[in-house]
Amino acid sequence: DTAVSQTPKYLVTQMGNDKSIKCEQNLGHDTMYWYKQDSKKFLKIMFSYNNKELIINETVPNRFSPKSPDKAHLNLHINSLELGDSAVYFCASSRGTSGNNEQFFGPGTRLTVL
Amino acid sequence: GEDVEQSLFLSVREGDSSVINCTYTDSSSTYLYWYKQEPGAGLQLLTYIFSNMDMKQDQRLTVLLNKKDKHLSLRIADTQTGDSAIYFCAERPGGGFQKLVFGTGTRLLVSP
């Protein structure tokens, strides 16, 4: 059983399109995250949700809109895709927001914008 | 501020020890982590250390923390070819938020 899963694994699309990436965790965790890893492998947090509420939003363009329909899902919708959005997007989850809560990562979604 | 730096590459021979270094800037960091990323895969937590500790050992892994110098290291004993991967250190900044600030990653290459 996959703990944190993402779909799709690969996404190739044209500039200007709108696309969504889905994330699901079956660990019963309360907190979920989206990270972006660029071509140089630099990894940076984008958003975090705790119990379906947004708690971290790291100066991400408002073309990116996360949505958490329930605690087990955190989707990422991207409008008007740009070349610079090409990256690997990782979803993660953790039990909560206090103490040491190990973050479990999904396998990543490689987005290529042409 | 939040800034985490690592050297980009490390090459060792199988059986040697590897030491991967990391420096961070946020003195209020509570936890520091080491993650491993194999090609085409997500990140896997290897180990972590609480900021009031200076050493933690877990089988072949030894983490050393020098809080005064804001320096973290990961030592892998008896390095194997399967250890070849990118290693990220990460800090959890103070302030109560769960976000992790990742380093630039160190690509470890283990040759037979």
Give the topology.
The complex is a heterodimer of chains A (114) and B (112).
Chain A: E1 4-7, E2 10-13, E3 19-25, E4 31-37, E5 43-50, E6 53-57, E7 64-70, E8 73-78, E9 87-94, E10 104-105, E11 109-113
Parallel strand pairs in A: 2-11
Antiparallel strand pairs in A: 1-3, 3-8, 4-5, 4-9, 5-6, 7-8, 9-10, 9-11
Chain B: E1 4-6, E2 9-13, E3 18-24, E4 31-37, E5 43-50, E6 55-58, E7 61-66, E8 71-76, E9 85-92, E10 101-102, E11 106-111
Parallel strand pairs in B: 2-11
Antiparallel strand pairs in B: 1-3, 3-8, 4-5, 4-9, 6-7, 7-8, 9-10, 9-11
Question: How is this structure best described in words?
Answer:
The complex is a heterodimer of chains A (114) and B (112). Helix content of chain A is 0%, strand content 55%. By secondary structure, chain A is mainly β. In chain A, strands 2, 4, 5, 6, 9, 10 and 11 form a seven-stranded mixed β-sheet that branches. In chain A, strands 1-3-8-7 form a four-stranded antiparallel β-sheet, with no helix packed on it. In chain A, a hairpin with a 2-residue loop joins strand 5 (43-50) and strand 6 (53-57). Chain A starts with a strand and ends with a strand. The relative contact order of chain A is 0.33. Chain B contains no helices and eleven strands. In chain B, a hairpin with a 4-residue loop joins strand 7 (61-66) and strand 8 (71-76).
